[in-house]
Design brief:
It is a single chain. By secondary structure, this protein is an alpha/beta fold. It has one domain: Vaccinia Virus protein VP39 (Rossmann fold, 3-Layer(aba) Sandwich). Helix content is 37%, strand content 18%. The N and C termini lie far apart (47 Å).
């Protein structure tokens, strides 16, 4: 069971548009109680049924091996064995799924990430509209946290009615979620196990519309993508997520990650949101030693991941698109959320076979300009 936590209040209001004003202090907690506890427990139950801990001693030993590789930033080894993938999914994905769900809910309520679409104008069949598809591209989302986040939204059809989005009497509801998951490691069996459990719950629910939640998984290295390979994954996408992954990409290759982000910018439709969540503090630093990129190498100086991301998206991207014949690009992205450190604290009454930990994260949200 998770540890009991105190001071579980909701976070304050919406961040402002100017980056220096849209930061919260690290003491603030993401509003975990804005999501029904039954939904949060359903997420944990799904992970528990899919990944049996088995021998606790063996599980602990496997987990220590994974932690060792992660500490050394040897991500290829950390995700190189099936037992490592299962241990990682059982240990870290549950709390991350809860945290992501609460982050999305908070961003929606703050008016930064609209997750509602017009479903019905009135109760007559003539004016009833089919649910819209909400396509997402989840880069590095193979461990199952993103899948469970969107499955939870789809399962409960959470009504996110908010004064931020005037409805004028029109009902606003979440759409049908369709995540496209890209990851380098072979997470297909992990995702299949979770999807099977989700489907079994859906088929047994009398009030569930059935068959509405759909995902696709592609085991690919995004750093090897050119524009031609990347373009199909961005068709119809409204939200791109890079969650606890961007630091890994920068570590693998700063130059390739820079190119990937610039290609992403060129191919992304106006209005698309880009959500980046990662570890805060010293862990999310990148050394430029001998690495060619859009950032000048200054003797191996280390830079914060967030600074590099802002530099590439907000400064380098406009000139890059201008040079490619897209005209004078003064701005490609608007950054609406810039959180250096936030806590997600687990509600004390949730149950899980092993102890989960609270999660600290940095949160960044961008919107693609016209």
């Amino acid at each position: 069971m998770p540890q009991k936590n105190g001071n579980l209040g909701r976070s304050r209001g919406a961040p402002q548009n100017k980056s220096k004003d849209n930061r919260r202090t690290s003491a603030e907690t993401i509003g975990q109680y804005s999501v029904p506890q039954a939904t949060q427990q359903w997420i944990l139950n799904t992970f528990s049924k899919c990944f049996h801990i088995g021998d606790p001693i063996q599980f602990k030993e496997t987990l220590q091996e994974v932690k060792h590789h992660l500490y050394n930033r040897d991500f290829a080894s950390a995700f190189g064995k099936p037992e490592y993938l299962a241990a990682y999914a059982a240990r870290w994905s549950p709390s991350r799924a809860l945290g992501y769900l609460c982050v999305l809910n908070e961003l929606h309520r703050d008016g930064q990430l609209p997750l509602s679409t017009v479903q019905r104008r009135n109760t007559t069949d003539k004016d009833t509209e089919m649910p819209e598809l909400f396509q997402t591209l989840n880069i590095g989302g193979g461990a199952g946290a993103e899948l469970m986040t969107f499955a939870a939204l789809d399962r409960d059809r959470i009504k996110m009615k908010d004064e931020t989005f005037p409805t004028d009497g029109i009902e606003m509801q979440p759409p049908v979620w369709c995540p496209r998951i890209l990851d380098l490691a072979p997470w297909d069996h992990i995702l299949e196990a979770l999807a099977a459990q989700i489907s079994s719950v859906q088929s047994g629910a009398s009030d569930d519309p059935g068959g509405s939640f759909n995902y696709t998984f592609h085991q690919r290295n995004v750093l090897e993508f050119g524009k031609k390979e990347l373009s199909p994954f961005l068709e119809g996408v409204s939200l791109i997520t890079i969650l606890f992954t961007l630091n890994e990409l920068f570590t693998a290759s700063l130059s390739q990650t820079t190119k990937f982000l610039l290609d992403l910018t060129m191919l992304t439709a106006p209005g698309t949101r880009l959500l980046v969540i990662d570890s805060p503090g010293s862990y999310s630093t990148v050394s430029l030693q001998g690495k060619g990129s859009a950032v000048e190498d200054k003797g191996g100086k280390e830079y914060k991941m967030a600074w590099l991301m802002d530099h590439i998206l907000l400064k380098v991207a406009p000139s890059s698109l201008s040079d490619s014949g897209r005209g004078d690009q003064k701005q490609c992205w608007v950054k609406s959320v810039d959180e250096e450190s936030r806590w997600f604290r687990l509600p004390p009454d949730l149950k899980y076979p092993i102890q989960l930990e609270n999660m600290r994260m940095q949160i960044h949200l961008y919107k693609r300009c016209s």
